[in-house]
Amino acid sequence: MVHALSIWLLVAGFFGAGLFNAIGTPGTQSDFVRWGYPRWWSILTGGLEIVSAVLIALPVSRIVGLALGAVIVAAAVLTVLRHRDFSHVVPLSVFVALIALAGTS
């Protein structure tokens, strides 16, 4: 039960974050620039997050989706820690926990 819930929470989380980043509001783009990335990086990140959500949703590609999601989250964690932008740590920690739960089965 926890495993299935973690999978669907990840799908929703990555899809929602992906849409938010892909839309690329000025605030989102400013964050990416502040972290040293080009403005369009939010669109690329959003696209990868949406791809990860789709891959996780499909049982046949779930492991690949979890791996992609883990890479995305790891890069985000390293970025926000390096820039001491600790307001993003809690949401990222939730993704880490859900990926760990989803990958245990």
TrEMBL record:
GO cellular component, one term: membrane
InterPro entries registered for this protein in UniProt: DoxX
Transmembrane stretches, start-end: 38-58, 63-80, 86-104
One protein family per Pfam: DoxX_2
Keywords, in A-Z order: Membrane, Transmembrane, Transmembrane helix
Membrane topology recorded in Swiss-Prot or TrEMBL: Multi-pass membrane protein
Subcellular location: Membrane
UniProt protein name: DoxX family protein
Organism of origin: Bradyrhizobium centrolobii
